[in-house]
Amino acid sequence: MQLFFVLYLMLLSTEVSTLGGHYSRELRRGGVRLPLATKGSPRSRDFAFNLYRALASADPGHNIFFSPLSISVSLAMLSLGARSHTKMQILKGLGLRLRDSPEEALHRAFQQCLQTLNGSQNDLQLSLGNALFTDQKLDVQDSFLNSVKVLYLADTFPSNFGDPAKAKKQINDYVAKQTKGKIVDLIKDLDSDSVMVLVNYVFFKAKWKASFNRKNTQEKPFYVNSETVVQVPMMNHEDLFYYFEDLHLSCKVVGIPYQGNATALFILPNVGSMEQVENGLNGKTLQKWFKLFRRRQLQVYLPRFSIEGSYQLEKVLPQLGIREVFTSKADLSGITNHSSVHVSEMVHKAVVEVDESGTKAASATGSVIMFRSAYRRNSKVVFNRPFLMLIMEQRTKGILFLGKVTHPEVGTSSERPQAPMKGNGKSPRPHLSAE
Record's PANTHER family (predicted)? Predict the structure, then answer.
């Protein structure tokens, strides 16, 4: 018997808006505030950065993009059905210290996060959810079903995996609906002896408060490395942005708020300092950046790009101490009484698109990033070499998405001249298998 477990689905689509002038006026009046990240748990953010380093080391030189929030929610939900050392490894990997905080606090925190993030907003689309598809022949523990419904707001559906084509269509139709048609055919293959599929999804779409004018976008060089230079469509816009130069880590950080309760951080390491910045990422570093951010007049150069990441997490999470759940020693008796089940694959996929779609900004822009200090001294911040991107949600102080843009890709997969950069080249086929 196989127990399919699918950890999937991140989709991020960002658009810029036409409110650049309005944003500037609000900043000058002091009416727009960057979310303070100091209330969040550094340990929860350390999971995100530890996972980033593991993904980056497994695929050096490639684009990285994933959702730490979605992965941690999925692992926490899986821990509800784990027992003994299997549970302890998952909770410890997530950064929970049971001597300081009970396990229930973790699940209640995620429950509150899900309730908050799924609240309606007029200017930002954000939804995070879970679904459990179970075969009628599988005896699932009632306590597990109740917990995923109450704590993780999961939809539950009976499925007939004896008819793989029908079950696959049921799951793919659900995913397509939840992602507004952006993700289709999530499940490629489904075995007739499969008994469970767990789906996790995130959908995020927002507009910049400070817009980029499409007319100012020009082809500019992007220095992938010392030997490779590519031409990319470089957007630019001059406005008041949040800015901090971290001399200790040798990088510049620009904070660009979206409409709504989210903010993007773009981190530009100095030449030759990418590894130093990556190794220095942690919760305390993030707190320091938000504390020391100052509003500065900048002319931001940022590539228009579209990248994706696809990862086999069962090969990466053991580096964070989450091992047993992927072996024959796994104890998942909290899910089902069926013996010898373990997670054989966990797949995570994320997509990000950043462009200036629909922009009608009237504010003045230029072809060079400029920084005007109190002394009118001009400075330049140009994202024309590999940089990091981080998106945070203001109310929960959570990291929604984290990534590295090493080689910007533009357009849909059919339009791109180069193959998309991925975490690995394997097609996702995630499942829990029983030995």
Answer: PLASMA SERINE PROTEASE INHIBITOR, SERINE PROTEASE INHIBITOR, SERPIN
One DSSP character per residue, 126-173 reads EEEEEEEEEETTS-B-HHHHHHHHHTT--EEEEE-TTSHHHHHHHHHH
pLDDT (tens digit per residue) in 140-183 = 899 999 999 999 888 899 988 889 899 889 988 988 888 777 77
> How far is Cα 378 from Cα 205, in angstroms, rounded to an integer?
33
B/e letters for 341-380, b = 16+ CB within 10 Å, e = fewer, are bbbbbbbbbbbbbbbbeebebebebeeebbbeeeeeeebe
C-alpha–C-alpha distance, residues 198 and 131, integer Å: 6
Burial class of residue 53 (count of CB atoms within 10 Å of its CB; 0-12, 13-18, 19+): middle
* H/E run at residue 75: helix 68-79
Number of neighbours of residue 193 by Cβ within 10 angstroms:
16
Backbone torsion region of residue 393, taken as left when φ is above 0, otherwise alpha when ψ lies between -120 and 50, otherwise beta? beta
For residue 213, what are its two tokens?
A: 């004018």
Query: Full-prediction pTM beyond 0.70?
Result: yes
Q: Which two tokens stand for residue 26?
A: 């609000």
Q: Are 155 and 130 in contact (CB under 8 A)?
A: yes
